[in-house]
Amino acid sequence: MREYLKFYINGRWVDPKTPKTLDVINPATEGVAGRISMGSAADVDAAAKAARAAFATYSQTTVDERVALLERIIAEYKKRYADMAAAITEEMGAPVALSQNAQAAMGVGHLQTALGVLKQFHFSEPRGSTLIVKEPIGVCGFITPWNWPVNQIACKVAPALAVGCTMILKPSEIAPFSAQIWTEILDAAGVPAGVFNLVNGDGPTVGAAISSHPEVDMVSFTGSTRAGIEVARNAAPTVKRVHQELGGKSPNIILPDADLKKAVTAGVRGVMTNSGQSCNAPTRMLVPKAKMDEAIAIAKAAAEATTVGAPDSGAMLGPVISATQWDKIQTLIQQGIKEGATVVAGGPGKPQGLEKGYYVKPTVLAKVTNEMTVGREEIFGPVLVMIGYDTVDQAVEIANDTPYGLAAYVSGTDTEQVRKVASRLRAGQVNLNSAAVDMMAPFGGYKQSGNGREWGDHAFGEFLETKAVLGYEPKPA
Ligand SMILES: NC(=O)c1ccc[n+]([C@@H]2O[C@H](COP(=O)([O-])OP(=O)(O)OC[C@H]3O[C@@H](n4cnc5c(N)ncnc54)[C@H](O)[C@@H]3O)[C@@H](O)[C@H]2O)c1
Q1: Are 240 and 260 contained in the same domain?
Q2: What ipTM was predicted for this assembly?
Q3: Most exposed: 88, 185, 332, 390, by fewest CB within 10 Å?
């Protein structure tokens, strides 16, 4: 039973201004795994003031000092790696192997990436007699979700620290354990007081207080489009910069000349991983109608080979995050069936023998059209929908017919055609032929999937202001 009742403000573990707690549920057991304090606007205010005070000195640190700091954080992270992976499994149910090999790995991955970028980054550029300077934007507010918890914390905190910003983090209240370990790591690494602050709590209270606080210069939010809109609304009166990373319903175009077995199998795996709880999951598979029967058979086999079970059982999928999420997924599957989709694999209800815990059957729905609810709404569970197309033009049209634009996937053997299709897709990241993760590739959405870009060098820009210093080079006498 974990008890994380203090916040981290101004380099110290402090009690909340008003005591209030929340039980954290382990989704694999439905049992209480721990307790956190739920903060208030007063806690956010204390954190914002600490971050503002620390900005005066931290923003003036040298690149070498920040390189040394990131190196110390990476060293501490490596010491706590197993604790981090265990915390993630406990808070959100990821299989042990996924937590160890991917979830926890992303945390240190973003730290190392930020370190590499920082060593080469140009913070100023002379242009004639003018100097253009990139300066840290100030105090940042970070609001993060539960699905890739430390990934989303690290991809904000690491570049922000690298450029000289100070910050307040509000992690997901449903999965707050990894954020606690993260904070302990930063504390052990000697992050100066006030540079990084942690306040736990819910969105409407702590999230809204961060979004609207006049001392917060920018807010970076990852989560649902609904909450992202609220953040922007609350931020508007203070004219702060708002960075949103929101939902997705990413298309996966399997071109007529693709290696069908490889592409469909990879597509199914891409949806199911992390129990379908990835914002960039390839959830809409677009298949040539002439190849649909064959594709369905491959998808069925791949989904049925996807094992589900307790995080420590060696199964490929754990539970989904919560009872609410489980219910939402079930309602959407039922809605899909009602609107005419065919269940190819999985379907409603819990997998056999897994009555306790929020487990969902790896599900494939075929005969889906892009107009159906399951073709349009983000399900955020292990549910793939398959949609047929007649021509490549039609596939592109269906792919783009969504309010989202986070990711897209294309498979085919004709490289020219694959690239051409990629150029027509309105999405922030297009993955060709199951390319591997690239930590330097910018990550972010078009349309209602958000704005701005995280990861790699592009992330630095989110936390920088641009200053033009005219007359920097004095005119020769
Ligand atoms: N684009 C991306 O990079 C990305 C990554 C992961 C998840 N997501 C999206 O996140 C969603 C799932 O996460 P979730 O259920 O935790 O989302 P959520 O929006 O409910 O919660 C995300 C965070 O926002 C906070 N929040 C909620 N309401 C708020 C408000 N009014 N003001 C300020 N903060 C508020 C929550 O407390 C939490 O910390 C999915 O839609 C998914 O696609 C997007």
Answers
A1: no
A2: 0.93
A3: 390
